[in-house]
Amino acid sequence: RPAPLVEVHDGPDELATAIAGELLNRISDSQAAGNIPDIGLTGGSIARAVHREVARLADDSGVDWGAVRFFFGDERFVPAADPERNVGQARDDLLDVVGARQVFTAPASDEVADLEESASQYAATVQEQISGELEVLMLGIGPDGHVASLFPDHPALAVIGTEATGVSDSPKPPPERVTLTFDTLNRAQCVWFLVSGEGKAEAVARALAETGSIEETPARGVHGRLETVWFLDREAASRL
Ligand code: 6PG
What we know:
Blueprint: E1 5-9, H1 12-32, E2 38-41, H2 45-57, E3 69-72, E4 74-76, H3 86-98, E5 102-103, H4 115-129, E6 134-139, E7 164-167, E8 177-180, H5 182-185, E9 188-195, H6 201-208, E10 227-233
Parallel strand pairs: 1-10, 2-3, 2-6, 3-5, 6-9, 9-10
Antiparallel strand pairs: 4-8, 7-8
Helix pairs in contact: 1-2, 2-3
The protein binds 6-phosphogluconic acid (6PG).
The site of 6-phosphogluconic acid has 13 residues, from helix 2.
GO biological process, one term: pentose-phosphate shunt
Enzyme class: hydrolase
Keywords: Hydrolase
């Protein structure tokens, strides 16, 4: 696996524009090669800015939005209409705007009996829908170094043999979530970390340091097979 690349942009707006442009390029290149790209989306505030920017630039991209499959690195286990749902936010910001038709996420808390059922259904969906690898997996990072809903020193870090697992005690609200496991997060050609702000600078430095544990900084455990890019603004890069 190649070493992580770091790309620093002035501020959150320039960062979102750069990521959105790169994502549109990757999707249209993939379609030009005859593929239906599998793209991993993330929750979080910088992701929302990226999604809105993709929607703004979409018309000139030539992308066929019916021929892209969207997945989520994690999803909040709340009712379907809850504004905290990652898929709801992504639909408002991008997916419904461009008419995406193949969108997959973990079922909501009013769609299945319990968290475990949501996790096992999403695991089955990911297994059957992602034929090979995610072409691009976008991820945020928490101030504690969490990625998706894999938090430091949490038992979910050790879950293997399934694509997705439930987390019922997330330190970041809401408490119940379904997250892809490390195995699945690492089945991506390209992993892009989207990071903005001073509050993440320490976590970014820990994630990119020569040494450090995955238990302590879970973002250290995710790498793309072909590339890992840290898209940062100046503040997020300030401890590098
Ligand atoms: C979630 C996200 C989570 C997020 C990071 C960064 O569902 O909460 O998947 O992993 O990406 O916490 O979030 P911000 O970009 O909002 O800081």
